[in-house]
Amino acid sequence: MKNNRILVTGAGGFMGSHLVNYIISKNHKKVYGVDDLSGGFRQNVHPKSIFTKLDLRDKKKTSKYISSVKPDIIFHLAADATEGRSQFTPIECTERNYGAYLNLLIPAIKNGLIEIILTSSMSVYGSQRPPFSENMRRDPDDIYGISKAAMERATEILASVHGFQYVIIRPHNVYGPRQNLSDPYRNVVAIFVNCLLNNKNFYIYSDGNQKRAFSYIDDFTPYIYKAAFLKKAEREIFNIGPVEECTINQLAKIVLKNFFPDGRIPNNLLPEYLPARPLEVKNAWCTVDKAQKILGYKTTISIEDGIRKMIEWAKTRGPQKFKYLDSLEIENTKTPKLWKKKLI
Ligand SMILES: NC(=O)c1ccc[n+]([C@@H]2O[C@H](COP(=O)([O-])OP(=O)(O)OC[C@H]3O[C@@H](n4cnc5c(N)ncnc54)[C@H](O)[C@@H]3O)[C@@H](O)[C@H]2O)c1
Fold first, then answer.
1. Which of 33, 193, 236, 320 has its CA 20 to 30 A from that of 313?
2. pLDDT tens, 272-325?
3. Which percentage of the chain shows pLDDT scores above 90?
């Protein structure tokens, strides 16, 4: 097992880079990583991993790369993870998620893949009534969710025909050090923190009473790793995340409290409210009984402690400029004002 060739896609990204570090800490010898660095950073890449800058949308280059590495195990984390934006960049989302995934998986199957661990998302549950459990149907409500649901189903179908193993992981919102702070389209915790670092207020969509659940990265990485090496986890789907839900308003309070530990929050940094984004799911959290039972999942880091750690790290990075796309695939009256007017 320690000599398996392990490939992590999205190795320069937030969760992928933590996973590479974890795999290397477990003494695996052949740890490969790919990333096109569109959303990740070279500095996140572990020096002991064998890193290649690769855009998985490039079918030919991806196929050539896979034929040379011949990975036994793949953790697939590369993605365009901008769920809220996917209604305005549906082609980019589909190409970077479903398209890139098939470009990776097909040559991997031809080159002796043993197992793939697919990082999916809660978005596959859509607006069904939470808490979401793994036996609920896939019923995505947005373009990002469609691509994740398609990736999941394609994995199940191709595995049943071609005989490799797989595990599907559906994480909650995950946050922590190394998260991209400069993306204005995603990662609510990172956006809130980076606005404050830039001495700007942040914005809350809708009334802020929408419920989510948040995982600190250290409560995620060990379980995706464990899922890959456990017989009982094969061909299973796991939600991973804490059971306690938190509203966006509560999250905002925790961020402000930890950013200004003396309690003196400048008036100009209090949040402002904007209309809801189109199709945003109101409430999303899940059950984790299955991950608790099979993977031994436990939440060990409270949201307060996690946010404090995230802010400590972000303060060492300092304010980052938000990077907007030059244009969206669809721009019209439905485009959120925050993006149109580059409010942050
Ligand atoms: N962070 C979360 O809250 C969360 C929640 C649920 C699911 N996920 C999923 O977990 C995975 C990791 O998310 P993350 O938060 O670490 O995001 P991230 O953006 O930090 O990491 C994704 C990485 O994929 C890379 N990438 C994008 N397109 C690529 C391409 N065509 N070829 C090669 N690399 C490419 C990006 O450069 C980036 O480094 C994603 O699949 C995401 O959908 C994340």
1. 33
2. 999 988 777 788 889 999 999 999 999 999 999 999 999 999 999 999 999 999
3. 92
Pocket of ligand 1 (CB under 6 A): 10, 12-16, 34-40, 54-57, 77-81, 96, 100, 119, 121, 171, 173-174, 180
Residue 214's SS3 state is: strand
- 3-class SS at 124? helix
Q: Could you check whether 5-175+213-240 and 188-212+244-283+300-340 share the same CATH topology?
A: no
196 Cβ partners below 8 Å, 6+ apart? 202, 255, 256, 259, 269
Give the predicted TM-score (pTM) of the model: 0.97
Structural domain boundaries in the chain: 5-175+213-240, 188-212+244-283+300-340
Q: How far is the CA of 81 from the centre of ligand 1 (A)?
A: 6
What digits encode the pLDDT tens for the residues 220-252? 999 999 999 999 999 999 999 988 889 999 999
Q: State the Cα–Cα distance between residues 306 and 311, nearest whole angstrom.
A: 9
Residue ranges of the chain whose pLDDT lies below 70? none
CA distance 295 to 297: 5
Residue in the structure block whose two tokens are 């999250």: 251
Residue-level pLDDT at 133: 96
Helix axes 188-197, 303-317, angle to 10 degrees: 50
Of 318, 273, 277, 77, nearest to 181 (Cα)? 318
